[in-house]
Design brief:
Belongs to the DszC flavin monooxygenase family. By secondary structure, the protein is of the alpha+beta class. Helix content is 49%, strand content 10%.
Length: 441
């Protein structure tokens, strides 16, 4: 194995080449770029989404990880949607990203979900102060690099602590630890990893997956979202570039809202797909019940009512996700202005968090009800495994279990009654007070 110094030199040389490939100089000045039109983006991505949708059921039934769909999306630089055009991206707006993410979720929610960590990291780099490091990462994303996620640790990791350790090695860093829920990492070029320095300080690093010190496993055994690559990742003395470290205090203040709205967009996509499948099944169904109201299901007013309710739920879910766009715009403006002025403010960050929480509470009810209500419009043949209509509930339930709704609703209620604010630091682990206690019998 090469030394840390040799590895760092090699990575730094590659990094400089990455920037030079896109920019005439490491400090190219910013220029205004008009975002693409919705129709331009549709022309690029609609055919790919249709291709993904056409093979989604086959992947679901065979548990085939979507490496091919990710490659198709890489070819059209879906991961570079928000990356400025001068770095090789599309320069799309936040609203355009969310709209396309919902459509991708309709094609295959696994694929939409696996971009969660990537979208968050890209957004963080977009809001970072101008620097050669920022240019480096945006150029990498512009050429098609994808970021996975590895934050949560298995077992008895203490709450708000990390057992994954980042240690200095020569002029660079080495990472050692074990993560679970590594969504998207098996498809990724980089992984956004949370870790602790030797003094306990919390940091995040972007780690290249193309090295022997990173081992990824597809051992996620959930009943839904089975194809997101959400499994175990083991880091053993993994090399970390010196400019790939970010301290917790430097992270984007409203990053939690970004992570959450990606999940909500995927859930809204599920609602979109299940409403389409319900309408199609009713439209083509020939068998009817003797106690029904018409000779064809598509002419039965009660069946049409069910379809209308399911379709309306999908419409509402999409509208709810897109309704958060203004709050994100205000949060970004506040973050950039106050960061430059050196007077940090969190007013709009709290507002966008609360906005997303409110949407989460309502959207969850809409999508989960629709995913079971659709069976009221169909016969018992709809529960056969081949149609996999149960996947919509399983996938939505899995997505919406990431952050417990009861806690979100409590925070919203506390804000309405007492002016309470959300906690911007979220974590899962074992409370210190219970670490040495025996489990209840």
């Amino acid at each position: 194995m090469s030394t840390a110094q040799d590895d760092r030199t090699s990575l730094d040389t590659t990094a400089e080449a990455d920037v030079a490939e896109v920019l005439p100089g490491p400090h190219r000045s910013h220029r205004h770029e008009a975002p693409p039109t919705d129709s331009e983006l549709e022309a690029v991505f609609r055919p790919v989404f249709e291709r993904i949708a056409a093979t989604a059921l086959e992947r679901e039934l065979g548990r085939v990880l979507p490496f091919e769909p990710v490659d198709w999306l890489r070819e059209v630089r879906f991961g570079a949607l928000r990356v400025p055009q001068r770095f090789g991206g599309h320069g799309a707006t936040w609203e355009q990203l969310l709209a396309l993410l919902i459509d991708l979720g309709a094609a295959d929610p696994n694929v939409a979900h696996l971009y969660r960590g990537h979208i968050a990291v890209v957004e963080e780099k977009l809001t970072a102060p101008p620097s050669s490091t920022r240019d480096l990462w945006l150029s990498r994303f512009g050429r098609g690099d994808i970021v996975g996620n590895a934050s949560t640790e298995p077992g008895s990791t203490p709450l708000l602590k990390k057992q994954t350790v980042l240690a200095p090695a020569g002029d660079g860093w080495r990472l050692t630890g074990r993560k679970f829920y590594s969504t998207g990492s098996v498809f990724a070029d980089w992984i956004d990893v949370s870790a602790s320095l030797e003094d306990g300080e919390q940091v995040n690093v972007l780690v290249s997956t193309d090295q022997p010190g990173v081992e990824m496993s597809d051992d996620w055994d959930g009943f839904g979202q089975k194809l997101t690559g959400t499994g175990t990742t083991v880091f053993t003395d993994a090399v970390v570039e010196p400019h790939a470290l970010q301290r917790r205090s430097e992270r984007l203040t409203y990053l939690g809202a970004v992570y959450q709205v990606v999940l909500l967009a995927a859930a809204a996509g599920i609602a979109q797909r299940l409403s389409e499948e319900t309408a199609e099944a009713v439209q083509t169904r020939k068998r009817v019940y003797s106690h029904g109201n018409a000779d064809l299901a598509r002419e039965d007013p009660q069946i049409l009512q069910v379809v209308g309710e399911v379709v309306s739920a999908a419409h509402g879910a999409r509208a709810l996700v897109l309704s958060t766009v203004p709050a994100f715009a205000r949060a970004r403006a506040e973050y950039e202005q106050t960061s430059r002025a050196g007077t940090p403010s969190l007013e709009e960050t709290y507002r966008v968090e609360l906005d997303v929480y409110r949407v989460q509470v309502v959207l969850a009810d809409l999508v989960l009800r629709a995913s079971t209500h659709l069976f009221d419009a169909l016969g018992s043949s709809a529960v056969r495994i081949g149609s996999a209509l149960d996947r919509h509930w399983r996938n939505a339930r899995t997505i919406l279990s990431h952050n417990p709704l009861v806690y979100r609703a409590r925070v919203v209620g506390d804000h309405a009654v007492n002016g309470g604010i959300p906690d911007l630091v979220g974590a899962v682990g074992v409370a210190t007070s219970t670490q040495n206690k025996e489990p209840a019998q």
